[in-house]
Amino acid sequence: MDLPPQRSAGLARLQEFLPHAAAYARTRNEDRGPEDRSNVSLLSPYLRHRLLSEAEVCAAVLARFPHARVEKFVQEVVWRTYWKGWLEMRPQVWADYLDARDRDARDWEDHDSYRRALDGETGIGCFDAWVAELRRHHYLHNHARMWFASIWIFTLRLPWTLGADLFLRELYDGDAASNTLGWRWVAGLQTPGKHYLARAENIRRYTRGRFHPADQLVEDAPTPSGVERPARTDLPLPPAPPPLAGNPRRGLLLTTDDLGLGRLLAHGAAEAPWTAVAGARPEEREEGSRVPEVAAVREYRRQALADALPASGPATDHLGPARPEDAVAWAQRARLEEIWLPYAPVGPTAPGVAGIREALREAGYRVVPFCRQWDRLLWPHARAGFFRFRQSIEPLLDEAIATEEEAFAAAP
Ligand SMILES: Cc1cc2nc3c(=O)[nH]c(=O)nc-3n(C[C@H](O)[C@H](O)[C@H](O)COP(=O)(O)OP(=O)(O)OC[C@H]3O[C@@H](n4cnc5c(N)ncnc54)[C@H](O)[C@@H]3O)c2cc1C
């Protein structure tokens, strides 16, 4: 299982997966182990950083098969979009998670059961194997994530926030929305009245007998009661990218939330629309954050960002954790007049991007905040459950794909 952090590797993986896309609905629940991942796409690290976009992945499978045959796969891709939109309208859920995680980390620091879980020494064979797999491959199959989270919460009785923290730090695809809400869903906090209980027989069946934790799991636990639905706020999205007007000395600042924007915005332009492009990873200096502190994940993001900077044309800079003053110094060095700053979704990058935006404005630069059309079209529909979301975006999906797929179709 090799998932190099380059767009070319993501495109190659997509090509490899395409013939299997129609069988996905039938086979996707099987976790065949790291040696055989042919039944799932393994595209999550690429989608997470948008080395590949949701639009182009959907377009590729829909070009290969009729919609009905790949409906399930497209549905899973838009789960990611749904979770992002849902959290965007409930930022307090992320803030509460961070507070609870820090509190739980202090309270549980010295507990043996927590240490044993982190070290993969619980004695539950499948769980310990998944800890090792997570630390080695920085990826787990979706079903394994569900079983893992369920065992963590209901069998080991550890706080869900600490399990979510482990995933967020270790996964190459670690994402504030998909991860936090995935854990909340298993714990029974996301959909009132529903939690997910891992069962030994289900694990045996869907791991093809590799694991069978008979009599080791708590298979019966009450659904958490008193779960409140978090309040929904308005979506504060900036406009879609405006047309590239005039010829100012223009800069683009990329973050690991969306590494495809340089290509998307430059597509079709006769010459590079940027005087300078920089990449920043402000999440690495988030105070109190332990995301991402795993060296392999940090290096993964660094390489992904390097891959996204144009190989020729505008000047490129890798600003690393990028304090606000580093961004201002970059703008001065490149003698920029205007800086395009993508919207940072709820998660570890957003506070750093907000600081950079303020500093650039204070220093007198014209800042152009913008948001991808895919997100602008689809996120506002994540108002309630996934079923309603899916129904309301169905008539919009072709448009959402077309807005970006056109631009990506010819890209290498
Ligand atoms: C507890 C828990 C934590 C999770 N944490 C993350 C996370 O941090 N980052 C992340 O990207 N996904 C997360 N997921 C969702 C899902 O497990 C992964 O996206 C998927 O396993 C990635 O493998 P794949 O690319 O082979 O997926 P495929 O099955 O091939 O699916 C294609 C794409 O659809 C999207 N997708 C599929 N299932 C989901 C889902 N349930 N929720 C959201 N998007 C989905 C992903 O972008 C994925 O790459 C989590 C799920 C659970 C239960």
Record the SSE blueprint.
Elements: H1 7-17, H2 24-27, H3 44-49, H4 54-64, H5 67-88, H6 91-108, H7 112-119, H8 125-137, H9 142-155, H10 160-170, H11 176-187, H12 200-206, E1 250-255, H13 261-266, E2 276-280, H14 295-308, E3 315-318, H15 324-333, E4 338-342, H16 350-362, E5 366-370, H17 373-378, H18 386-409
Parallel strand pairs: 1-2, 1-4, 2-3, 4-5
Helix pairs in contact: 4-5, 4-18, 5-11, 9-11, 10-11, 15-16
The structure holds flavin-adenine dinucleotide.
- Give the total of domains: 3
| Alpha carbon gyration radius | 21 Å
The named CATH superfamily of the largest domain: HUPs
Alpha plus pi helix count: 18
Describe the global form. globular
Mean pLDDT: 93
Measured as a percent range, the helix fraction is 40-55%
Bound small molecules, by name, code or SMILES, are: flavin-adenine dinucleotide
Main sheet, how many strands, which sense, barrel?
A: 5 strands, parallel
Helices and strands: which structural class? alpha/beta
- Run of helices and strands: HHHHHHHHHHHHEHEHEHEHEHH
Q: What is the first-to-last residue Cα distance?
A: 23 Å
Q: In the CATH scheme, what's the topology name of the largest domain? A: Rossmann fold
Name given to the CATH architecture of the largest domain: 3-Layer(aba) Sandwich
Number of strands: 5
